[in-house]
Design brief:
With 363 residues, this protein is mainly alpha-helical. Helix content is 72%, strand content 0%. Helix 2 packs across helix 15.
Length: 363
Amino acid sequence: MAKTIEDYMDGRNNNYNLLRFLAAFSVVWSHAAIVVGGNDAVEPLSVELGYTLGSLAVNVFFVISGFLMAQSYLRSNDIWKYAAARVLRLIPGLFVAALLSAFLFGPLFTQLEFAEYFSTLQTWLYVPITSSLIDDYQNLPGVFEILPAAGEINTPLWTLRWEAAAYVGVGLLGIFGILANKKKFGAVLCIFVVLYFVISLATDLRTSLAPVDHMLRFGLCYLVGAAGFLYRESLPLNLPVFALLCLITFFVSTTEVYQFTLILTLGYGTIWAAYVPSRGNRAFNNWGDFSYGIYIYGFTVKQMVFSTLPEIETYTLFLIAAPITILLAAASYYIVEKPALSWRFKFATGLKEFSKSRYRSDL
């Protein structure tokens, strides 16, 4: 009898840290082309698959998050613990990255005089707006303005708002008891799939409204990941199934169902890669999870490197930027992210008490 996902799950003994690390660096590599050639540059795999390496890597992130967030909520069964962990996972690291961009990297790479840079309101608004996810495309005065990717400080941050939205979505599914009931979750999944195809095939909303496209894409990735966890006891996990999905994806690559099939295949392959390969790669977990730091620093580092060495090619840019990004990511993990997450239980208690006090005051 074929082994299921549940058969391979053994606590934290998995490859998720490695997969996220590789996905984060795939984004860094993909965006190196943009830094050198501007937004019209051809990113890796965009011609071959119709999707860039960076977009596929982001899909992997969302599949992994869907799986792990469903697991996190159901195992804690506490909305406050879940919310505290999610806030502390996203915000502290992003806040420090924004702080460094505005008050260290910005002054070094702006075209403005020091006094003019710090007298501009935009400089002071960058940190609160960026770290709160209110807006993901804030510029800094005079920074990177003459580069091919003109004025772009940290392009990948736009996906973080969708990640936060997905966190909220999982929380709502948990609050209403849908995550804990496979039949209810299956109904939600079916409704989403129907909407996905109706909107994709019968309307032009995905091309005319970017938020609709992002909602369908990331929502599908997240639900595929969550479904992997919820149905882990019955879903087989083996290479032949993945190979069959890859074959199906190849044959439908010129049809309207290509993206749907690609995400399904990518999701299954991600879960397979997280649990089945189990040799020395599991030792990667001892290093920690640097993926978030790589993601939030990679683009800014490449822009700084290219500002300093404007004649370099894409490959060279990546090779120079990669070790700098890893150092910043490691510092972010050990100095900011890991310590922040250690406060999640106290933070959860505080959120719960605050909610109770507000409820009493409303009475």
